[in-house]
Amino acid sequence: MSLDISSIDFAKGGGLIPAVVQDADTLQVLTLAYMDEAALRETLDSGQATFFSRSRGGRWRKGETSGDFLNVVSVTPDCDGDAVVVKVRPVGNACHLNRISCFGDEDAPGLGRVGRLERTIHVRAQADPNDSWTARLIAQGPKRAAQKVGEEGVETALAGAAGDNTELASEAADLIYHLLVLLHARDMVFQDVLDVLARRAEPATDKADNKG
């Protein structure tokens, strides 16, 4: 994990910078902590979020006593270089009150629910197929998962044409679940789909502008 620490302005905050900790998959904000230069270096070297505790007056690595570690995916400074966003994949809860987030009880709101489901599918895929429908479906291979996507797609379309809103929402949920299973079976993630949507959202280049 690379970051030019010399670009970080620790002096502005008296030796500390705020660190916004965000779930890398759901984008849920998990907590706000502080880092000094030593904590940031340790975070980058160890791959586990390490902070400076203002109440304890020293180093603090999340999970050393609770076992609820924050495995770091990336560290990104803001435009002024005096704060960072730390994207993590948490092991357990981020909050000392045994909540996923320090900011309320809600779990992965909005589209973050897709990321949470994707992580659950990844875990269930390792289970005994006799105990988990997800594991059983994945063990049967991509073709079976693709078949289920087709079936659920038809059911969603029928609900959209003739069902009520509750039925449509339920069928759409089944479709999304099976689509995520299919993506997992093909060693893909939902971000691959989002990347395509992002590219499609880019302004089209006027071909006339490219003529010599």
General description of the model:
With 212 residues, this protein is an alpha+beta fold. Helices cover 40% and strands 17% of the residues. It has 6 helices and 6 strands, in the order ββαββββααααα. It has helices at 37-46, 112-124, 133-139, 142-162, 165-185, 190-201; strands spanning 17-23, 29-35, 50-53, 58-61, 70-77, 84-90. A hairpin with a 5-residue loop joins strand 1 and strand 2 (29-35). The radius of gyration is 22 Å and the shape is elongated. The mean pLDDT is 92.
Concise summary:
This protein has helices spanning 37-46, 112-124, 133-139, 142-162, 165-185, 190-201; strands at 17-23, 29-35, 50-53, 58-61, 70-77, 84-90. The chain is of the alpha+beta class.
Features:
alpha+beta, 212 residues, four-stranded mixed β-sheet
Main pleated-sheet profile: 4 strands, mixed
Strand order of the largest sheet: 2-1-6-5
Mean pLDDT: 92
Compressed to H and E, one letter per element, the order equals EEHEEEEHHHHH
Give the N-terminus to C-terminus distance in angstroms.
43 Å
Radius of gyration: 22 Å
Helix content: 25-40%
Number of helices: 6
Number of strands: 6
Low-confidence stretches: none
The chain-level structural class is alpha+beta
The proportion of strand residues reads: 15-25%
Oligomer: single chain
Q: Rough shape?
A: elongated
